[in-house]
Amino acid sequence: MNRHFDKRLVLGAGLIVALLILGAVLTYLNTKRLNEDAGWVTHSHEASELTSKLLLTLLDADAREQGYLITGNDEFLQPFHAALDRLDEQLASLEDMTRDNADQQERIKNLEEMSNEHVALLKEAIDLRRKRERNVQAFLSVTNKAWATMDGIRGVIATMQAEEHELLKDRERQLDQAYRIALFTGLLTAVVGLGLVGAFVWLSESRLSDHRRADQARAEADRRKNEFLATLAHELRNPLAPIRNAIELLRFVNGNAELVDKARGIMERQLEQVIRLVDDLLDISRIERGKVQIRKKRIDLADAVQIAVETARPHVEASSHKLTAISHNRSRFACGDDGKTA
């Protein structure tokens, strides 16, 4: 039984440790997935924001170019070239950011080509203005081409933003799903963990209860044994006094056969009682198990009284008292213990 409980306790502790390890692994995996999904959501936001900045940069370059064409003031050219520098950086960043998406990479190539064409047209218009050429037809041709390329750029950017918007919605759904899975696995791990801890505590308490019952059983067995030994020690002393008196009596018999028979009878009866008590002592294992039983038989009360008188007489005489036993010729019988154990 103890081994069975010990195995269950070890198994319970092992299950709790395994659950803790599993919970740690699941937490790590869920956290990793949440971070990845959150990263992709942020990535989509950044890509969409970068396309918007790129369009604003092109519009800023257009505005600076138009300001120079109208006024001829070189102050518009410095912010114009700064906008072109930003445009190159933004195109490079956008290309690097969308390397995982082949469709977006293809759109970026088109966007770069169209942007380069648009910038070339802007620069051509600025050169015409510097040369102070009054060829209206040339200005209109360059301006119309620039507007056309700008419309194409807007279309590509709108397509890219729509793509990123769809990716964003999909990644937000994945993020929400990952969050729900993490929450569910966390709650499930907690519930199972609490159940295992409760079962472990119950098993531990049962084990402690078994130990307490075993300790109580041992204490009860020790109490019975001590009581028995105390009683047996007292009972062993009782037959010794009559035997000693019988031995003393044998010293003064002087050939009196009646006294010899009497002394021998006393010693035989008391010795038989001692033997029975020693047998009980040798069978002490039954006492520890509480297996001592009374074996009843038909007993002559006259014999029982005679043995009792013989046992008590030395103590009575030692106290200067007088003990008189009157017996009848008729026998009286009773059901009693024969002094042996089962």
Question: Features of this protein?
Answer:
mainly alpha, 2 strands, rod-shaped, 342 residues, 7 helices
Task: Explain the overall architecture.
The chain has 342 residues and is mainly alpha-helical. It has helices at residues 2-71, 77-97, 102-130, 136-250, 257-282, 284-288, 301-318, and strands spanning 296-300, 333-337. It has a two-stranded antiparallel ribbon. Helix 3 packs antiparallel against helix 4 (136-250), helix 4 runs antiparallel to helix 5 (257-282) and helix 4 (136-250) crosses helix 7 (301-318). It is rod-shaped, with a radius of gyration of 57 Å. The mean pLDDT is 78.
Distance between the termini: 28 Å
**Elements, N to C (H/E):** HHHHHHEHE
Which percent bin holds the helix content? over 70%
The strand line-up of the biggest sheet is: 1-2
Chain oligomer state = single chain
Ranges with pLDDT <50 over ≥5 residues?
none
The largest β sheet comes out as: 2 strands, antiparallel
Radius of gyration: 57 Å
Strand content: under 5%
Structural class: mainly alpha
What would you call the shape?
rod-shaped
